[in-house]
């Protein structure tokens, strides 16, 4: 399939969206009782589950403990049946290791680690279905799980992917669009200050298009922030109402 | 398996309760917890299911692929199990922490499915000696709440029930070699005959009683577990003893008979639920939402 077909003359993408349109975003919090915080995020056909354990004592030797801040420990793994082609193993491959590093660096910035000295916070991300924009959905799910766990954050971390096709910026790429070489990037921001905490450009983009694509992705991040913020407020409101009736 | 800290007095409480046929959640010794079942939980698989028994959460996805058969069985398809214990279930499973238990469960499943009396894989043969269907059964453990083997085997059977394999037409090409054509019409997809597929029934001995479907706290009190794979007709596919304790031959026979009775009843109840779940399949909006 050649490049121009990713955006038709009428302005529609392969899955019927407009260029700047995001996929349907759904999420639910506190899906598991065992973890301190958990979230299930579904963006189109990409489904990610995140669990947060902590803050707790540092596991596996006190050498790793930091006297003035928390250790943020992440793991990215993808179910072997999540992709169209079956994966040989769920984690430990180059891509998973890279994703783990991205998550770790992003959340070390976002978590108020100084609040939890000599502690460890675990973030485990599990991709159940992969249909593009995995990194951004993983970051969004991890944020929601951290909020659910009640861990101090500077702000939400909202992530969105974007790409360029024929001079037009497309938001929230699906698998088909992503597999087109040389197009996509992922941006994560702290929405209040609009500071960028992550840019991952694993393919090449013409320098003329970079700023435009990043701007589009930031707009997408803001949309996600609005959705998440409404979701959290609704949930907290419901929980608060429950506490009131008990009294 | 991930261990839970249970104090001595808690253990005594559980054991005394079991002696009186009353467990912490109000069940009798031979009662199961509520089993939640959903088919088609992972739409990108040929067959999938999601099973939740109280806190035990299992997601199974089956992908059917075409590959060369085993030399030992050139006219039969293959079924391969892979169990992934995610760190979501327990931080101990991070990295390679869950591999050992995963392999143990996958091995037990493979053993239970090995005989063609229970699952006839010859229907998965496409061209003898050359091409067969391989079913990759990938099992994801999302949360641990005891009775793992039972939950996994129920989820696998459900996913096999949900499995639809594309219809193939094999014709001999001009060069005399068989050509395979895959039908892309979803309505011609075929289900697998799973009428005899076994499920695990685990009986744990707590005090002097046998108990089914133990919670994690109860598992800490049990001395020995008998894990039996029972087919719907009552035949036993495999059986193994897990745990550190030992067992008197008389109790072993008692356990096997009990497992057989429970297994037959379990399959009947499951089949009804499969039919119900099939009707709802695909209509729900993601299994956790």
TrEMBL record, chain A:
One of its GO terms (biological process) is nuclear mRNA surveillance. The keyword Cytoplasm applies. One of its GO terms (cellular component) is cytoplasmic exosome (RNase complex). Residues 21-151, 155-220 form the Exoribonuclease phosphorolytic domain. One of its GO terms (molecular function) is RNA binding. Keywords: Cytoplasm, Exosome. It holds the Pfam family RNase_PH_C. Its main location: cytoplasm. The keyword Cytoplasm applies. Component of the RNA exosome complex. Belongs to the RNase PH family. Non-catalytic component of the RNA exosome complex which has 3'->5' exoribonuclease activity and participates in a multitude of cellular RNA processing and degradation events. This is Putative exosome complex component RRP41. The lineage of its organism: Eukaryota, Metazoa, Ecdysozoa, Arthropoda, Chelicerata. The gene is LOC100897573.
TrEMBL record, chain B:
Keywords: Cytoplasm, Exonuclease, Exosome, Hydrolase, Nuclease. It is found in: Cytoplasm; Nucleus, Nucleolus. It comes from the Eukaryota. InterPro entries: ExoRNase_PH_dom1, ExoRNase_PH_dom2, ExoRNase_PH_dom2_sf, Exosome_comp_Rrp42_subfam, PNPase/RNase_PH_dom_sf, Ribosomal_Su5_D2-typ_SF. Gene3D superfamilies: GHMP Kinase, N-terminal domain. One of its GO terms (molecular function) is exonuclease activity. It holds the Pfam family RNase_PH. SUPFAM superfamilies: Ribonuclease PH domain 2-like (SSF55666), Ribosomal protein S5 domain 2-like (SSF54211). GO terms for biological process: exonucleolytic trimming to generate mature 3'-end of 5.8S rRNA from tricistronic rRNA transcript (SSU-rRNA, 5.8S rRNA, LSU-rRNA); nuclear mRNA surveillance; nuclear polyadenylation-dependent rRNA catabolic process; rRNA catabolic process; TRAMP-dependent tRNA surveillance pathway; U1 snRNA 3'-end processing; U4 snRNA 3'-end processing; U5 snRNA 3'-end processing. Residues 32-166, 196-261 form the Exoribonuclease phosphorolytic domain. GO terms for cellular component: cytoplasmic exosome (RNase complex); nuclear exosome (RNase complex); nucleolus. The keyword Hydrolase applies. Belongs to the RNase PH family. This is Ribosomal RNA-processing protein 42. The gene is LOC100897593.
């Amino acid at each position: 399939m050649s490049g121009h077909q990713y955006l038709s003359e009428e302005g529609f993408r392969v899955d019927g969206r407009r260029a700047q349109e995001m996929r349907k975003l759904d999420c639910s919090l506190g899906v598991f009782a065992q973890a301190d915080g958990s979230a299930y995020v579904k963006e189109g056909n990409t489904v990610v589950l995140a669990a947060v354990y902590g803050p707790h004592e540092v596991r596996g030797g006190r050498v790793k403990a930091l006297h003035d801040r928390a250790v943020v420990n992440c793991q990215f793994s993808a179910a072997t049946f999540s992709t169209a082609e079956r994966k040989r193993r769920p984690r430990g491959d180059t891509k998973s290791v890279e994703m783990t590093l991205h998550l770790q660096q992003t959340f070390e910035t976002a978590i108020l680690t100084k609040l939890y000295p000599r502690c460890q916070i675990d973030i485990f991300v599990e991709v159940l279905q992969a249909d593009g924009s995995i990194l951004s959905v993983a970051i969004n799910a991890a944020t929601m799980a951290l909020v659910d766990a009640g861990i101090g954050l500077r702000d939400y971390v909202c992530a969105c992917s974007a790409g360029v096709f024929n001079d037009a910026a497309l938001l929230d790429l699906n698998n088909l669009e992503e597999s087109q070489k040389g197009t996509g990037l992922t941006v994560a921001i702290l929405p209040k200050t609009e500071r960028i905490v992550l840019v991952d450009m694993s393919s090449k983009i013409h320098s003329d298009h970079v700023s435009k694509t990043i701007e589009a992705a930031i707009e997408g991040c803001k949309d996600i922030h609005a959705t998440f913020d409404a979701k959290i407020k609704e949930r907290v409101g419901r929980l608060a109402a429950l506490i009131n009736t008990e009294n | 398996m991930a261990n839970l800290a249970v104090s001595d007095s808690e253990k005594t409480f559980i054991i005394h309760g079991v002696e009186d046929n009353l467990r912490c959640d109000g069940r009798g010794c031979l009662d199961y917890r509520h089993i939640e079942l959903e088919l088609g939980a992972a739409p990108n698989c040929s067959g999938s299911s999601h099973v939740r028994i109280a806190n035990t959460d299992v997601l199974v996805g089956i992908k059917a692929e075409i590959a060369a058969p085993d030399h030992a069985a050139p006219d039969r398809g293959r079924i391969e199990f892979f169990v992934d214990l995610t760190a979501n279930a327990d931080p101990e499973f991070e990295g390679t922490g869950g591999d050992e238990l995963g392999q143990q469960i996958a091995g037990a499943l493979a053993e239970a499915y090995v005989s063609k009396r229970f699952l006839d894989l010859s229907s998965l043969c496409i061209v003898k000696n050359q091409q067969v269907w391989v079913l990759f059964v990938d099992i994801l453990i999302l949360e641990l709440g005891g009775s793992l083997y039972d939950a996994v085997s129920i989820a696998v059977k459900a996913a096999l029930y949900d499995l639809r394999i594309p219809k193939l037409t094999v014709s001999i090409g001009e060069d005399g070699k068989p050509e395979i054509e895959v039908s892309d019409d979803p309505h011609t997809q075929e289900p697998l005959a799973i009428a005899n597929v076994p499920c695990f029934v685990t009986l744990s001995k707590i005090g002097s009683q046998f108990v089914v479907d133990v919670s994690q706290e109860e598992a800490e009190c049990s001395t020995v577990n008998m894990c039996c794979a029972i087919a719907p007709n009552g035949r036993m596919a495999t059986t193994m003893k897990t745990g550190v304790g030992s067992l008197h031959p008389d109790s072993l026979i008692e356990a096997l008979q009990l497992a057989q009775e429970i297994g037959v009843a379990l399959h009947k109840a499951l089949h009804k639920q499969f039919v119900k779940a099939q009707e709802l399949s695909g209509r729900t909006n993601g299994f956790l939402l």
